[in-house]
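Ex. 9. Protein: Iron-sulfur cluster biosynthesis family protein.
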Amino acid sequence: MKITLDEAAKERIAQHSDEHKLVLLTFEDGVGPYSQHAMIHMQVQFSINIISDTMPKEDYTETIPTNIGDFWIKGYSKEDLQENMRITLNPRLSTFALSGDGGVIDDNLGFIDFTKKTS
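Predicted C-alpha cells for Iron-sulfur cluster biosynthesis family protein:
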C-alpha cells in the first residue's frame, strides 16, 4: 500500500510539516482525539492531520509510505483504502482528493493542523 501526492499537495502539506511533526490520514469515524465526527452519512471520509511528535497517537498503529514520508493511520481503516492511492490538490477550490486504482475514495479530504495554536 502506498500514496503518491501531486506537487501541489506536497507543497501545501510541506508548509505545515517539519522533523518534529507527523502526518495522519485520519478515518473520520469519531475514534480518537483527531477525528472530527462519526460517520453519519453512507460515505467514507478521511482527513489529513498534522500533529507534533509529542502529541498522542495511540489510535494510529500503522503507516503508509508516501513520496513525502510516512502517513500514520488507524490500522482498521485499511479496509476503506486501496493498494495504490493518490492525493491531489485542486488549487482553485483549495481542496484535497484521495483516489486509488478503483476510483475516488474521498473527493473532499479535510486538512487540519493540530499544532496551530488557537486563541
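Check your answer against this statement. The longest strand covers residues 103-113.
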